[in-house]
Amino acid sequence: MVLTVYSEKACAGTAKVLKESEANLQKAGIKFTPQSALIEGNPCVFFNEEKYQGFLCLLEEGRYEDLSQHNITEKTKVCSIKQIKSSLANPQISLYNTAKFKEHKEWQKAVDGKYRCICASENGTWAVKTDFTVMLHGGNGGSWAPVMGKMREVAASAKAIWAVNAADEVFVRHGVTGKEWTKIDGSMKTVSVGWNGICWAVDKQGVVWRRLGAKDTNPIGSKWQSVSGRLSSVTVGQSGVWGLSPKNEVMYRDQTFGLTGEGEGTGWTKVDGFFSYLHSGSESLWGVAFNGDLYYRQGINQNNPMGENWFKLKTDMEWKAVAQNGTKLYGIDKEDSFLSRDFVGANDIIPGSCVNLYEENGNFKSFDLQDKPSSFLVRNAGWVIYSNSNFKGKALYQVEGECYSNDPPNPKGPKLKSFHDPVGSIRPIRGIGYSTLSVSVELHWDRIGTKHNQEVVHEEEGKNNSFEYESASWARMKPVTAFVEHNFELDQPVEGCMGSTFAVDNVPKTGIPFSTSGTLLETGTDFRQELSSSFTFTSDTKTFRRREKKEVIRFPPVLQPKTVTKVNVVVHSGFISMPFTATFISGSKSWTGTGKYTGTDSTQIKLQFKETSLLEGTRKISRI
Questions:
Q1: Which terminus of the chain faces fewer neighbouring Cβ atoms within 10 Å, N or C?
Q2: Neighbour count for residue 84 (Cβ, 10 Å)
Q3: Does the domain spanning 92-97+354-433 belong to CATH 2.60.20.10?
Q4: pTM listed for this prediction
């Protein structure tokens, strides 16, 4: 793996060679902003901060003569470069459709007002209003009532309630019947407690703490003990201790499923996913995305405490926070309303369908997936996930357990908001163990040729000898096959071309005229849509696509008096041809080839009439 960076475009000027990752380019002797680069082997990731922070771009093997096309300009600081070390062989990714609840239940407003925090336990349901008023619902048909004391957030176990006020002071209250909050030591930004009293917290600096000795028999515990790692929030529940890192990454505390013993765990493991809010529930983990979508973690149990994958849940609402208690789910929506619904356990959810893929796909029409799957899981190697079909739109790169996006984050917003974008297309990241031939095709529209042909595909004739209108004997409806075809053929075969995919840019948004006289005929929507889709070479020279559909043609229901009527069904075909240039890239090598494109649009279907009067002679009327 070798990276060469140059001080000028077109791989010119001062050159520096890097064979390893560099956390500080200045110390490595690179005093200039790279303007071009040559990469051999695995990809490289460029950053505008030291120690691999501030993603700029990910570049695969190849020659890059102008890095301004990849988010690096003369004014850009390139402070560190990371080289991907692992093999990219045997890529595999799983794509998932949206899940849904089995029973359609309306979300019910739990109580009037605007809320910022909710929690639920055997102690009842607790909530904090946006003005920091604490509310309690004791269950058993009771009503909501305010609780003395202003708090920013609360967390409930079976025996005690923990809370943090606006000054980051920590308080504990013994159950529903407790009348006062007891202030304890510590200054915390957020606190969370499990059903059995195990308590964790995070302070303003992101330091993680757990309360030694805290349990149902001793709700306050003895003291705070710092834990390695940095988090922005923590959640404690039957599914274990989970948290969000300062980068919104999902972190699981190993050996904490079920909160056995002291629930201290053994270390942190990063799990796929990026969220703004997490809740550890009953054998489930709930996540709220930056856009308000609700997700749940599938397959969490004792044998697989980190679960399998994320499913987006269809709720038709935008959320800020959720909390689970048994089979009931509470939530705060984007309007700060406090809502709830029943039947939310693992057995109450229908998972979305899943497909495993191993190579690039410009769309998912051939699979049991919705047009844009709602979540994914990279199982092996590295992948690029695009927001649009045909490898276009925002790109998310996932490799070696890290995610990078070309969608710049808002400095005050989410760190990786594109993780939750619907998946439009995918391809494996190229490098050691996985090398493919990439192809781009440019049609020469200035050299286009057209031809028009018409074919009679069906004939009918009817005769009316009377002086009254008569019903026609022919069938009123006639299905006729309409189709479009596209064919690309290289003048010379290219080894390894089979399986390569490309999409045609700059396809005209209007039809291409192909008739030379009479009614104007032009290619239709089907022709344009198919030409705009991705193509995959089925050999080292050709790729072909054909789409058929049935058009139902209506015949006239009656015959005119004293008239012989002949009706022809005519298919007008437009033949389009032009040369194209194909550019091939394999690693740092690139070359071009030529070929011919031919297309057919046979979707213009017309009825043609010839009417002969039995009284006056012949009269012809053509309708095209």
A1: C
A2: 23
A3: yes
A4: 0.83
